[in-house]
Amino acid sequence: MGNAAGKPAFLVGIDLGTTNTVVAYAAAGDAQAGINLFAIEQLVAPGEVGARPLLPSLRYHPAAGELAAGDLPLPWPQQEVKHAVLGVLARQLGAQVPGRLVSSAKSWLSHANVDRQAPILPWGADADVAKVSPVAASASYLAYVRAAWNHRFPHAPLEEQELVLTIPASFDEGARALTLAAARMAGLPALRLVEEPQAAFYDFLQRRRATLREDLSNTRRILVCDVGGGTTDFSLIDVVFDDDGTPQLTRSSVGNHLILGGDNMDLALAHLVETRMAAGVEGGMKLSAARLSQLMERCRAAKELLLSTDAPDSVTVTLLGAGSRLIGGSRSADVTREEVAAMVVDGFFPKVELGDTAKKGRAGIVAFGLPYAQDAAITRHLASFLQQHQGPLPDTLLLNGGVFRADALARRLAETLAHWRGQPLTILHNDNPDVAVARGAVAYALARRGQAPRIGGGSPRSYFLVLGEAGKDHRAVCILPRGSASGEEIRLTERLFALRLGRPVRFHLATSLFESGTPPKLGEIVDLNAGEYLRLPPLASVLHASDGNDKREITVQLATVMTEVGTLEVHCVAEADAGQRWLLEFQLRGEEETQAETSSVPPRVKEAIEKIERIFGGKAQKVETKEVRQLRQHLERGLGGRESWDTPLLRQLFDALMLRARGRRRSAEHERVWLNLAGYCLRPGYGDALDPWRIEQLWALFDAGVQHHKDNQVCAEWWTLWRRVAGGLSTEQQLRLLDDFAFNLQADAAQRGSRPVTLVNGSDDDMLRLGASLERIPGAYKAEVGAWLIKRLQKADKRGEAADTNTLWALARVGARQPFHGSAHEVVDSAIVADWLHVLLVLDWKKTEPAAFAAAHLARMTGDRSRDIADDLRATILARLKAVGAPPLWQTMVSEVTQLDETATRRMLGEALPPGLKLIG
User: Fold this and answer.
1) What is the rounded CA–CA span in Å between residue 317 and residue 298?
2) E strand intervals along 200-284
3) Which of 443, 530, 707, 843 could lock onto 665 through a cystine, CB 3.0 to 4.6 A?
4) In sequence order, what are the residues at sequence separation of 6 or more whose Cβ sits closer than 8 angstroms to the Cβ of residue 130?
5) What are the 10-residue block averages of pLDDT along the chain, 921 residues in total?
6) Three-state DSSP class for 839?
């Protein structure tokens, strides 16, 4: 099995699923070889190893001494995964002990509102439980597969084989990049990605290749519906027949990302069982996040049993007690087959009309920190998908995913589509949805070698790189001709480009809207005004030299490839050294819906920059103090009121200010105005592709502090600047600000006397507003800041003084259940927030309206049990809000999961966001 001349011995497909990880393979050198499943050796009970085709995508983190050394034997040295149990045994242990099971790591990879590389799983677990990041958890499953494979095939290591890893079709660039990062962590740096619905269809093509003409003879459009444990994907594949009757297949449409799948069904069933278990408990019973996760595992097993062929009439779901009350504290509830069928079939696959649309919003279930789709009806999401992607309705259906092993679900979806069409569909047989994706990944690898049918068509359009300045130059060079095969790199050798390193560069793309006849050739120059072209949103980036020698121009060629997952990769390849490459990725999917953002920059922006140059430019000019002070008013005369300045204009002004940053030192007035404008123009620190680079440039000024450190207004503007851009600062940078925050609040007279000049003085109010904006610092530090704020409130109350508005605002921000830019795993512990709420309840909310505002944010419902306060305290807060006539939105925030409106966002952030920039956290 050894590799000959470095060639792989096997083609290997890996389905890194939300619920299970599956591996399939075929001999690379034998075109007639079949596709086999790799039976993964794993712990199936303490001390017992068995080979199974499915490796549960779970990790169990045992307590110290919980398992004996002899309970965890594996046939290979356990170097890749330590301090965790993987395999079937992990699922068994997780169902018995709450709060120690890592699940749904794949779903977390696409959750942008948490730090996916921070150790946050198991979500909501106690502090003494070891935690792991979603990326590291995913890497551990791949590392386990690699160890199992290398034990069985020591002469053909997995990392040396031709690997294909599957991902949801709807994964965005971030989730794809994190998946690749996980693979690298697992020692699998070289692999291809293919989308799961495509892989499922490749499996069908491979299995039915001998009868494909007959199977697809009446087919023109195929819907692949893939409902996995954590995600739902829709893809459309169009079928045409060439002259000899051979079907030609082209993927035409892909749906949006939906965190909706088997996990949601298990959660819905767990809520039902929880309600029944609580029926006999005085005062009711609400499980913790860890216990609910444990109950979900029990409900998953019950669901699968009750929806299977020859299912029993009912099953009993038992939740064991905790600790010493393991048996005596257990609770049980019965669930019938009819109940589960009704809940899953009618709840997730209801009968709907084609004109129905899925409910939109971000108020979905967040039970474990994951932003599940608000609308649980998969059929409504499908209706929305088909409305967005015009053309004939699909006449053929391929179902994939473990949930479709339940005949009732497959039947309902087929009936719904048939109702929309007015006639039945052709159903393509999927003999084993659990393993089809892994097998299909191998079939895709075979297709790339010309040994199996392939979904072809290549790029449906030509793509062009705009030359010169976008909007001024109408010439563009073709970098990807229509029909270019996916996954194959094309080098544009006939044209050379000058690339700036270490400075922002923008790459503007355009695409052909309608093409007929011969497509343009690679490298051909076209006139964008002479045809039907669509300009796409630009990609802005800062590219760095590997040797650190930035701020120079080098000559490069372009190499392009259309990937199988819908991105156009453009490499800038150094002419002098082809080993030097810089990757740019353009997301091309959905360009019809996402038109190029053509922000209209006011025509007088040049005059505005000239005004900035006059005040802060390198050539000292005689400028009166009054003119410096009135710079903002002068800018507003030409550009309109500053509240109307949108993000592109604000960033242009910031860039102009940053280029002239040295000019701020000329006087205290210069420094005040520069700090004020720079912070305003870069707020909230993110929202534009180049903002990370801008923050990097701005942060370089931090250690030097201010020039006029004795001017109180300069110092105040300094801290206002950092508060405004805090959303773009890293955790390390926010912790550095926290150090200065602590010094300014806690230093005694002697310490202040020895204060370094570069440590800028700050008043209590300056620090209060700054500290409240540091959302990326650990929750324990936020709790300390909150404790200081609570002491301020209690001291004022003892003196008979009204509570300070700024203190209450800061408390609301520090203890917020839903951060704006920070990760949800770093919120203050809900028990601590409950103590703060009891302090607020002592205040008179009618006289002190900000107390009600703070309480509403501290009690805001997220749907995540690890962050939400207890129900009885929530009821108390809600009753008080109603009693004082608090705004309806505040009451709704406490009673249900909802979004803030613009007014509430402005008040919470301290000022408005730039027009067109909306927070979705």
Assistant:
1) 6
2) 221-227, 232-241, 247-254
3) 707
4) 61, 83, 84
5) 69 94 93 90 94 96 88 80 85 89 89 85 89 95 96 96 90 82 94 90 92 91 90 89 86 77 88 85 74 86 84 88 50 89 89 86 48 80 86 93 83 94 92 93 92 75 77 79 80 84 81 68 84 73 75 84 76 85 67 39 80 86 88 93 90 93 94 97 90 92 93 96 95 94 83 78 90 94 94 87 88 93 91 96 92 95 90 95 94 89 76 56 43
6) helix
| Euclidean distance between CA atoms 741 and 598, whole angstroms | 40
Based on the number of CB atoms within 10 Å of its own CB, is 458 exposed (0-12), middle (13-18) or buried (19 or more)? Answer: middle
The span from the CA of 545 to the CA of 550, in Å, is 6
Place of tokens 């995600």: 231
Question: Would you state the pLDDT for residue 570?
Answer: 85
How many CB atoms lie under 10 A from the CB of residue 745?
Answer: 15
Note the pLDDT of residue 746: 84
Element housing 686 (H / E): none
- Alpha-helical (H) ranges within 260-377 are 262-278, 289-306, 337-341, 347-348
CA atoms within 13 A on the CB side of 153: 21
Task: Report the distance separating Cα 372 and Cα 111, nearest Å.
Answer: 10
| Bridge partners, 167 (sequence order) | 195
Please state, in angstroms and as integers, the Cα–Cα distance from residue 227 to each residue in 306, 311, 405, following that order: 19, 22, 11
Pair 477, 489: CB distance under 8 Å: no
The H or E element that residue 92 is part of is helix 88-96
How many other C-beta atoms can be found within 10 angstroms of the C-beta atom of residue 337? 16
The number of residues making up the chain comes to 921
How far is C-alpha 484 from the chain's CA centre?
A: 30
Tally of CB atoms within 10 A around 735: 16
pLDDT of res. 1: 46
Which of these, 507, 506, 515, lies nearest to 533 by C-alpha position?
515
CA dihedral (525, 531, 534, 535) positive or negative: positive
What is the end-to-end Cα distance of the chain in Å, rounded? Answer: 51
Contact 478, 521 (CB under 8 A): yes
Helices 196-207 and 436-448: crossing angle in degrees, nearest 10, is 80
Residue 913 contacts residue 643 (beta carbons within 8 Å): no
Based on C-alpha coordinates, what's the Rg of the chain? 30
Give the whole-angstrom CA distance, residue 427 versus residue 424. Answer: 9
Q: Check: CB of residue 496 under 8 Å from CB of residue 575.
A: yes
- Residues pairing with 20 in the sheet: 56
Closest CA to 297 of 275, 277, 280, 319: 319
Structure-token pair, residue 863: 């749907």
Q: Write out the two tokens for 400.
A: 């994939």
Q: In DSSP terms, which residues pair with 52 in a beta bridge?
A: 40
Asked if the bond preceding 684 is cis, omega within 30° of 0, the reply is yes
SS3 (DSSP) at 518: coil
Question: Do 110 and 259 touch, CB atoms closer than 8 A?
Answer: yes
Find the Cα–Cα–Cα–Cα dihedral 602, 603, 604, 608, rounded to 10°.
Answer: 60
List, in order, residues 6 or more apart from 283 with CB less than 8 Å away.
Answer: none
Omega cis (within 30) before 8: no
Tokens of 538: 């630009």
The count of other CB atoms within 10 Å of the CB of residue 360 is 10
Dig out the tokens for 831 from the structure.
């028990």
Contact assessment for residue 18 and residue 107, using Cβ atoms and an 8 Å cutoff: yes
Q: Which two tokens stand for residue 332?
A: 């049980």
Q: Can you tell me the distance from the alpha carbon of 664 to that of 622, in angstroms, rounded to the nearest whole number?
A: 15
List the one residue out of 851, 787, 869, 776 whose CA is nearest residue 820: 776
Rounded to 10°, the helix 691-699/647-659 angle is: 30
